[in-house]
Amino acid sequence: MKRADIAATAGQLRLILYAIERGELDATATERARLEGAAAALEAMADGKT
Which top-level group of life is the source organism from (predicted)? Predict the structure, then answer.
């Protein structure tokens, strides 16, 4: 998988998180934390920091 694809997926997760913050989507604290963790992990992979 290309780093650009991984970065794009992380970006999509960030968009979901922003929608949650704006109140456009509902999510529990656990769901938000999981999305945040997934986005951070993918960003680290895309940056080559794993």
Answer: Bacteria
Which tokens belong to 25? 């989507």
d(CA 45, CA 42): 5
Q: What is the pLDDT of residue 48?
A: 86
Contacts of 44 (CB under 8 A, 6+ apart): 50
Residue 49 has pLDDT above 90, yes or no: no
Who contacts 42 (Cβ-Cβ below 8 Å, separation ≥6)? Answer: 6, 7, 9, 10, 13
